[in-house]
Amino acid sequence: MTVAVSSLKFLIWAVAVLVLVSGKRQKREYSVLSWNDCGGPDKVLHIESLSISPMPVILPGVMRITSSAHSSATISAASLELTIKRSTFLGYITVPCISNVGSCTYDDMCTLVDTMERENWAGISRQVSNQIRGFLQSAGISSTCPVPPSEINVTEYPFQMPELPSILNFLADGNYRVNFRIRDRSSHRVLGCFNVNMSLKKEETRGWFFFRRR
Length: 214
Description:
By secondary structure, this protein is of the alpha+beta class. It has one domain (2-206): Ganglioside M2 Activator Protein, Chain: A, CATH 2.70.220.10. The chain is built from three helices and twelve strands; from the N terminus they run αβββββββααβββββ.
């Protein structure tokens, strides 16, 4: 019985991976970023506006962020719950957490940027962490805690999107629904919640005889 159950679990996992890797997208790529605020009445993180260009985001390539946001209270300790769903012919399927990339929970946002730099998850998080730190510094915000009430106003801030390693290559092309949920680590109160719908696309390159390949 144990062997049968284990085999069934492996089969389900294998099917899920195949769907993620080879599933066709259900609809056209997003041409503009779609987002909404899913936070409750006692939230402290607020986004007034958010846009990303180009859309789809090209990997690797430069993504430009324009946003206006603010926090209404000091944040001393918080966790980040990230849920990423990819469009397939079976609908939207949750992307697993692989090498700390994907649908993961990060227990300590106060040290997250430093941890990304130190551990260099999947060979890309060091580059991403340096850009996050630069983004926050440009807005006058510390990447460590506590973070006092702050405002962010940026226009077309350039963010270099890395080339994904082979283990994550299946993520480089598709339509995605992403949920960000930030919680206070002590009270588990939701400090902010945001949904983002977007598309990723592999950079087109030219191979032999100038044919485009992806």
